[in-house]
């Protein structure tokens, strides 16, 4: 998901809508905005579909007055899978003795089922099936005096990954979980401030990037300034390495590094680790593009757009049902026949998850007369599901969980298949010494199976780590 908020600027909702539009790649199912204005009070609009189709009309934007606002773009990783209900669309709102608060959450709470059971047992009435709603109910039960303190109280009981943008009548609040799994950045916008999942959304509104919110940090921002503190026990950070590979936009800055440059470096590493004699390097667009450029630069094999992407389609994996995803490949990608005929092609993609995309693309490329197809993948084999906010299927649907690399090559029907090594990936994200085995610098659980937070709900329902 993507989260965004601003304080201290007139017509906050317009800025929030623009920010969410720049974060649309993080969630395409639905979006919502909440604002506060002293006369109008809290107002909200939550809709299915793209930001540009919902939050551009004057009719909607007029209903969201005020100089303080937050928003969320959703893709479901928990809750009602496949059929998001409007009641699951964030931001969520709660009315407390000291006033209202709205929150938008990116990540996944790994003990949400246990918390929900406990809260329902004690009388909480849940409105949604979302894991994020637990936070509101935990806040409601807290005995603290202020909303930020109640939020701290609540979040100390929550396990898993959370980046949060929240608001009260006067405050914009940002929090990252102690491991800092999901991103969150701070920007300055005129006299006001902005919080955003990624820096690309600061660019769109002309805000200056100030810094990242640190793992375990809570910032409380008013028109007067920023207060920062660290309410959780300090731990080594575990930022999601897959944000670098795929999830974030290539024009964002993560951990002081350009995502684009990291992806290009991944491609260079791949070319060193897995060279092959061929005529051209083609990306599977868009997610494989920077890595393909890196592979081409390192290997000296020309880069070409052998597959053309229809820009009017979204990200395939974000479409929640299998049948839509299957169709998605053809709706989205087409082979540039004239280019690939008779050629030995190196195809670069960011990841192989179920293998559906890769299989279809290989068929399309061979149909178009390619002589050879060599797959090069910009991440290690995805052998474990993510429980921290990136949607992955159950283990039995992950190709790499059920097959060896050789079996995968056979299954995909390609001439060769190579994944970047985990150490190569760490080098590409700037860790010259590679992965620190005793304390990995990132979360890489979907590749290594080493989960930095025990996914206790999943373990309870039978998941074997
Ligand atoms: P698959 O191998 O499952 O058919 O799809 C892989 C493609 O989906 C890749 O090109 C990648 O861009 C995209 N993708 C990236 N991350 C994920 C993810 O976490 N889950 C799924 N299902 N697809 C992803
Ligand atoms: Fe990121 Fe993978 Fe960790 Fe999920 S399991 S947070 S996708 S690195
Ligand atoms: Mg892709």
From TrEMBL:
Cofactor(s) needed for function: Mg(2+); [4Fe-4S] cluster
Details of cofactor binding: Binds 1 Mg(2+) ion per subunit. Binds 1 [4Fe-4S] cluster per subunit.
Enzyme class: transferase
GO terms (BP aspect): 'de novo' IMP biosynthetic process; purine nucleobase biosynthetic process
Gene3D superfamilies associated with the record: 3.40.50.2020, Glutamine Phosphoribosylpyrophosphate, subunit 1, domain 1 (3.60.20.10)
Active-site residue list: 1 (nucleophile)
Name the UniProt record assigns to this protein: Amidophosphoribosyltransferase
Organism: Sulfitobacter guttiformis
Lineage: Bacteria, Pseudomonadati, Pseudomonadota, Alphaproteobacteria, Rhodobacterales
């Amino acid at each position: 998901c993507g989260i965004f908020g601003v304080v201290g600027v007139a017509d906050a909702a317009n800025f929030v809508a623009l920010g969410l539009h720049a974060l649309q790649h993080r969630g395409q199912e639905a979006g919502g905005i909440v604002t506060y204005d002293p006369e109008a009070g809290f107002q909200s609009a939550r809709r299915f579909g793209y930001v540009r189709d919902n939050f551009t009309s004057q009719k909607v934007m007029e209903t969201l007055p005020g100089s303080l606002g937050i928003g969320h773009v959703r893709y479901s990783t928990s809750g009602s899978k496949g059929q998001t209900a409007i009641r699951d669309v964030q931001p969520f709102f709660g009315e407390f003795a000291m006033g209202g608060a709205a929150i938008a959450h990116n990540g996944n709470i790994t003990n949400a089922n246990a918390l929900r059971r406990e809260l329902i047992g004690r009388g909480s009435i849940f409105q949604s099936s979302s894991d994020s709603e637990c936070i509101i109910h935990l806040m409601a039960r807290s005995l603290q005096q202020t909303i930020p303190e109640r939020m701290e109280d609540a979040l100390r009981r929550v396990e898993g990954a959370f980046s949060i943008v929240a608001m009260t009548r006067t405050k914009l609040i940002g929090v990252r979980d102690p491991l800092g799994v999901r991103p969150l950045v701070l920007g300055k916008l005129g006299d006001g401030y902005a919080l955003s999942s990624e820096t690309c959304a600061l660019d769109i509104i002309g805000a200056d990037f100030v810094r990242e919110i640190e793992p375990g940090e809570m910032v409380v921002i008013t028109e007067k300034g920023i207060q920062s503190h660290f309410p959780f026990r300090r731990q080594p950070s575990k930022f999601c390495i897959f944000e670098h590979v795929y999830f974030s936009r290539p024009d964002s800055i993560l951990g002081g590094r350009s995502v684009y440059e990291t992806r290009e470096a991944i491609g260079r590493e791949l070319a060193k680790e897995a060279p092959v004699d061929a005529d051209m390097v083609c990306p599977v667009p868009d997610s494989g593009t920077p890595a393909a450029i890196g592979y081409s630069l390192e290997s000296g094999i020309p880069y070409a757009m052998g597959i053309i992407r229809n820009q009017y389609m979204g990200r395939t994996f974000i479409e929640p049902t299998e049948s839509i995803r299957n169709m998605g490949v053809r709706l989205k990608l087409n082979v540039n026949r004239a280019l690939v005929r008779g050629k030995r092609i190196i195809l670069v993609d960011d990841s192989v998850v179920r293998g559906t995309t890769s299989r279809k693309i290989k068929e399309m490329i061979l149909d178009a007369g390619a002589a050879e197809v060599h797959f090069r993948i910009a991440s290690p084999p995805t052998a474990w599901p993510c429980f921290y906010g990136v949607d992955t299927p159950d283990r039995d649907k992950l190709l790499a969980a059920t097959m060896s690399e050789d079996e995968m090559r056979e299954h995909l029907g390609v001439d060769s298949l190579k994944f970047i090594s985990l150490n190569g990936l760490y080098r590409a994200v700037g860790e010259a010494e590679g992965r620190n085995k005793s304390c990995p610098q990132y979360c890489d659980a979907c590749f290594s199976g080493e989960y930095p937070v025990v996914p206790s709900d999943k373990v309870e329902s039978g998941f074997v780590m």
